[in-house]
Design a protein that fits this description.
Layout lengths: L2 H14 L6 H13 L5 H18 L1 H16 L6 H22 L1 H5 L5 H21 L11 H11 L9 H11 L4 H28 L10 H28 L3 H19 L7
Helix pairs in contact: 1-2, 1-11, 3-10, 3-11, 4-5, 5-8, 5-10, 7-9, 7-12, 8-9, 9-10, 10-11
Amino acid sequence: MSWLQVVVLAVLQGLTEFLPVSSSGHLAIASRLFFDDDAGASFTAVTQLGTELAVLLYFARDIGRIVKAWFYGLFDRARRNTDYRLGWYVIIGTIPIGVFGLLFKDDIRTGARNLWLIAIALIGFSAVIAAAEYFGRQKRHIDELTWKDSVTVGLAQCLALVPGVSRSGATISTGLFLGLDRELAARFGFLLAIPAVFASGLFSLPDAFDPVGEGMSASGPQLAVATLIAFVIGFAAVAWFLRFLVRHSMYWFVGYRVLLGVVVLILLATGVVAAT
């Protein structure tokens, strides 16, 4: 990979990771459109470590409180409060994507990065996001969260293994369908992503240097710089997005997803860009 590719893709990763537009889909599209090759799923997974570090920093106080409550609650039933339960919900909700990620890791690195599939996922899942906004009651708050909710949102997170779907789009939409208010759906989805993304990034680190399937190789300094850039921009992005969701719906992103998907389909159909 060239340094220009590293910087451009890291900036794109930081900007799109938390928005319901699919960061992995954007990196795959930008790689082929501007650099005539795919950055690869492993490079994407490693740079996501930077954006998840941003989430850790942004939610540091909440995470510290949840971890503390979880440990205290393990040994003292009287201290099993909402934060204690939330700790278990994050653990439970992480299991599905861990299982599916291992089962389909080869497909994720190869066939799933086909631009035809990404474009269709961008357009198709837009309807799910729009439906969630339309039908979601948004009346349930954090004290009403249950383990069934965590399993359901955790299963929805597995859809993010397909580039073009979007992790935040899948988890927030599912939360809205379950009746959670929009900010809670976003916060829970971000917390749920932390263990999954860190595990994926560390697991993919060796392959980012020497890709087994499709994808370009990157040096250690390039991966370090990409992760740092994604961290800085990702921190600003998550702060902005959560404030945005308090006052606005996700309909804004639906139109963008459809437009991008249609543009990619046109580029593919006219041979301007290759699907793989």
